[in-house]
Design a protein that fits this description.
Elements lengths: L26 H31 L6 H30 L6 H34 L4 H4 L2 H25 L9 H7 L9 H38 L6 H40 L9 H25 L1 H12 L20
């Protein structure tokens, strides 16, 4: 996501003979920035690729929740593979050198992937809600067919919105000087007016965030009540112990996924909020600040594999198997990954 200041231009004279302004950074600084950002998106690519391979390859990890995590890892993988490299050049060189058509394609995918992530997080919250609060209905509700439909909606709706809004330029309607800026500037300016900035903030972040927070509060309230009910019993039967173990797995999974949700909100809220208020500030937000907030949002795709690695023992185990090349043996697909006390 990116919003740039749009001055009132009547001609292209202020841009001179070149569409991009002189880069104020030295060659050494640019080199360090290239190295650091390259390391970030390479780690993002391989970290999320490890999640994709792990869940796709090992049959014991084929669960509704994990398929949603797999789809979200694809989102983070694409963010590192298809978005970050071009954004890196724009940020380091302070110039967009790939043309206006690809600028729109780039920002359409950028906007789409961020919305796909928030939709997946909402879907995962609903999945955990049924698993913990309505366990008897969970198998019949979160079926493979239902998961496929959810994933399709999580991708289709953001794609239609992002490409429709960006290529129609509805987001810039009423912004004075925008057309001239497009013709003259090499900065790939994507500007959200007051209406679309507010719509994006409410529908793309604030609304889903409120829904997810409400769901997880309900989940942890129900989990706490179940724990108290079981603790009041003097002893547990074998079936009750098995039921409690299953509940503990679901609670651990919900806790981990709520941390993933919190990480997304922390990383992307500043950028979405800047998009919301920038039109009301007459597009006076500094370019460097927007760029920094944009990259802070990108870091969420880098952090998610680290969260999974820290909280999910199965991911650490499968990552080790991938590095050792054991997955080249097709019979290794059925190996036991999850122990009795590990969360799904």
């Amino acid at each position: 996501l990116r919003v740039l200041e749009t001055p009132d231009l009547t001609d292209c004279s202020e841009f001179g003979n070149r569409s991009c302004s002189e880069n104020f950074r030295s060659a050494g600084v640019r080199g360090v920035m290239y190295l650091f950002i390259t390391a970030v998106f390479i780690l993002t690519i391989f970290g999320n690729l490890a999640i994709i391979i792990s869940i796709s390859y090992f049959k014991q990890l084929h669960s509704p929740t994990n398929f949603l995590i797999l789809s979200m890892a694809v989102t983070d993988f694409l963010m590192g593979f298809a978005i970050m490299p071009y954004s890196m050049v724009r940020s380091v060189e302070n110039c967009w050198v790939f043309g206006i058509i690809f600028c729109k394609v780039h920002y359409s995918f950028d906007l789409m992937l961020s919305l796909v992530s928030i939709f997946h997080l909402c879907s995962i919250a609903v999945d955990r809600f049924y698993a913990i609060c309505h366990p008897l209905h969970y198998p019949s509700t979160m079926t493979p067919a239902a998961i496929k439909q959810i994933v399709a909606l999580c991708w289709a709706m953001p794609a239609a919105f992002a490409f429709g809004v960006v290529f129609s330029e509805a987001y810039a309607s009423g912004i004075e000087g925008y057309e001239m800026l497009i013709k003259c500037s090499g900065l790939c300016p994507i500007v959200f007016n007051k209406l679309w900035g507010a719509f994006l903030f409410i529908v793309g972040l604030f609304g889903p965030a409120c829904i997810m927070i409400g769901i997880y509060v309900k989940i942890f309230t129900v989990s706490q009540r179940h724990t108290l009910e079981l603790s009041q019993a003097h002893r547990l039967t074998k079936n009750n112990k098995k039921h409690e173990l299953s509940k503990n797995k679901d609670r651990k999974a919900a806790k981990t996924l709520s941390i993933v949700m919190l990480g997304f909100l922390i990383c992307w809220f500043p950028c979405f909020f800047a998009i919301l208020i920038d039109p009301f500030l007459n597009f006076s937000t500094p370019l460097s600040l927007f760029d920094s907030l944009n990259w802070f949002g990108y870091l969420n795709s880098f952090c998610n594999p680290l969260i999974y690695g820290f909280f999910y023992p199965w991911f650490r185990k499968t990552f080790k198997y991938i590095l050792e090349g054991k997955i080249l043996n097709t019979h290794f697909r059925t190996i036991k990954i999850l122990s009795e006390d590990q969360s799904q």
